[in-house]
């Protein structure tokens, strides 16, 4: 008996402080609903472990006590992977940057001075930023007093990968999961075409700087699009862990990689490194490509980025 045509099923939920969308092709509606629900469960599980906003998350318990016993394998893995990105970027990616982010946030929050921190305040706070001081012994993670970790540049990508793994484990061969613009695309559509992903042109609604055709790849963008229009929007949510100041050289960095965690972390890394060092890092890595928009609105691509672009659109 011939199988029916596959159905397209999609669902969106608010998790991890963003909108997460999962979309699959499947042959049974009930199975599709259950499968997608299970995938969202994996995203929620990641959020429970790694959220900065949940008081009882393992991440917050570590930040509160500077030690965490019986840490989950997931947290070990993400922290371990984070130190890899730190080492290949000479510290441009560093999950111990939270004290610097908190310093800037306090200055520009109610009760703050609404003035940038002094150089002395930044220098003092930077003493708490050093990924090399994260110690893992057995199943316990240690950090030094005052150090705090934030996983905003990597946890979302990891959560998408977890959701995708769940879908694949349940037999789904054609799907995507996107969390606030960080997405991973598996297989092809039933007609054999790849997944189409557009990179929004900040100057023109509905227009795209690039249109990518993806199969078994992920893409993520880091940046501050408001700076495309306004020099006043200088305080980026992405700071350079080496200087304590907002990264200013790029408006955005988009990275294509096999996993969303790689794309997510490397997009942040390239944004911090800037044009020259960022492109050099990407060219040194196998199977990774990027597109960057510089602060003076130039668009630059790594050598292999065009292989993913649809030039007919």
Automatic annotation (TrEMBL):
Spell out the reaction equation it catalyses: L-threonyl-[protein] + FAD = FMN-L-threonyl-[protein] + AMP + H(+)
Any one Gene Ontology MF annotation carried by this entry is: metal ion binding
Report if keyword Repressor is assigned: no
> What InterPro entries does this protein map onto?
ApbE, ApbE-like_sf
Name the cofactor(s) required for activity, per the record: Mg(2+)
- UniProt keyword Metal-binding, yes or no: yes
**Could you tell me the superkingdom of the organism this chain comes from?**
Archaea
Q: Cross-referenced SUPFAM superfamilies, in alphabetical order? A: ApbE-like
- Enzyme Commission number(s) from the entry: 2.7.1.180
Any Pfam family from its record, for instance, is: ApbE
What are the UniProt keywords, alphabetically? FAD, Flavoprotein, Lipoprotein, Magnesium, Metal-binding, Transferase
Report the protein name in the record. Answer: FAD:protein FMN transferase
